[in-house]
Automatic annotation (TrEMBL):
Name this polypeptide is given: Trk system potassium uptake protein
Annotated positions binding K(+): 110-111, 219, 313-314, 430-431
Pfam families cross-referenced by the UniProt entry: TrkH (PF02386)
GO cellular component terms given for this protein: plasma membrane
Family note: Belongs to the TrkH potassium transport family.
Compartment(s) where it occurs, according to its Swiss-Prot or TrEMBL record: Cell inner membrane; Cell membrane
Function description: Low-affinity potassium transport system. Interacts with Trk system potassium uptake protein TrkA.
Membrane topology: Multi-pass membrane protein
Regions that span the bilayer: 7-28, 40-58, 70-92, 132-152, 182-200, 234-252, 273-290, 329-352, 388-410, 454-475
Species of the source: Oceanimonas pelagia
PANTHER family with a match to the protein in the record: TRK SYSTEM POTASSIUM UPTAKE PROTEIN, TRK SYSTEM POTASSIUM UPTAKE PROTEIN TRKG-RELATED
Record's keyword terms, sorted: Cell inner membrane, Cell membrane, Ion transport, Membrane, Metal-binding, Potassium, Potassium transport, Transmembrane, Transmembrane helix, Transport
InterPro entries xref list: Cat_transpt, TrkH
UniProt-recorded Gene Ontology molecular function terms: metal ion binding; potassium:chloride symporter activity
Amino acid sequence: MFNLRPIAFILGMALSKLALFMWLPTLLALTGRSRGFEEFLQATLLTHGAALGLLAWGRRERLRLRVKEMFLLTTLVWTTVCVFGALPFVFISHISFTDAFFETMSGVTTTGSTVLAGLDTTPADILLWRSILQWLGGVGFIVAAVAVLPYLNVGGMKLFQTESSDWSDKSAPRAATMAKRIVLLYVLLTALCGLGYYALSDMNAFEAVNHAMTTLSTGGYSTSDGSMNHFAPAAHWVGTLFMFIGGLPFLLMVSSLRNRNLELFRDAQVRGFFWLVLATGLVLSLYLWATGQYPLMDAMRISLFNLVSVLTTTGFGLEDFGTWGPFPLVLFAVLMLCGACSGSTAGGFKIFRLQVGMALFRRQLLQLMHPQAVLPQRYNGRSVSDDILRSLITFIFGYFATMLVLALALSLMSLSPQVAITAAVTAVANVGPGIGEQIGPSGNFATLPDTAKWLLALGMLMGRLEILTVAVLFIPRFWRH
């Protein structure tokens, strides 16, 4: 039914890369800056062993995987990486596997929710590992958004079909070249972000490296319980800039840099994202200043940082926006659903879906006034086929249905309505912190029941992989033929 050997080979390749990155915190522990060298070494060797086993059993064939196998493989890569990525948390932090898997899933999906407290005294190797997980998850999703999801026709992603989305042998070399360029740009921007943190703020080298990885990946893990409150205002401006960059489409950035043109700035998504940040930032800044909560410059810095953090689903904390009053609270609740650009490291609904939905709404209004008119649906200079519209509408239904079902399930565990609803929204939208004292910017998810953590981990995975990629696995017919 399924050709499992090529799937096993690709899983082995993914685990081998994870094991290589495990050596970084292992060597950090060896230097004496942190405890846990033996435990990290054990986790690293176990991951290498599993990778070698899968590579030995699997085989690298020039066999094109079917669509069903691609759905299965995409979900398996994320879950398998999370299982082995959780081992250092179990061995060193001595937390349950449930908590470790939740933390790892939150990291790999760049959600930013955490069950760990006392980060200021947490071993440096664990802090580095959390940051690496988010950094790898960010670049991994860029590749998935460019190459895999358009191929699977998920959520209207065919609007961004490129050679990288074609799995034919003819396009493979071009796809590999594009992937290398994206990774190179990702590494370069991470280095620039780290340099900015180190040179312009009060972060030391270790803090700058960690925050650079979690900023560009729009993940939001920090080395301090105070998150960005722990650092000077200059760090907030650096963070705002690189979170915004992380929310831009990397494929377009690579293309614009390579061709030395303004293609990036002509993109409808990018323009929409920019104006949304600017407009909401201006309104919120004036609100915070007019209500006497902050001086004008502080209001601009704090509001822009939090807005970009929420829109890009980063989840860094700066102040507690839950105490600002009803208007900011409702605004952030709405923005949690939006997300940034497709092909970025950000999660969420994505700007392009809002734009296509608004265009479709306008077209329907015009059609009501002129029933005989032929009104072609276009977006960003490209025609939008009925197939893409069906995929997009299906995604929208699945997106909000997943949040609703998850919130209802969480409410059965004696969680308050606020916690149940915002936890579901932040998990599926990959935002990170929720609203309220328990799971808000000043809290964490440690106090939630284990069942809730498993459900939220599933919500994070579904949100990151655009809902339908995972939901299709729950259909019995998927496994029959």
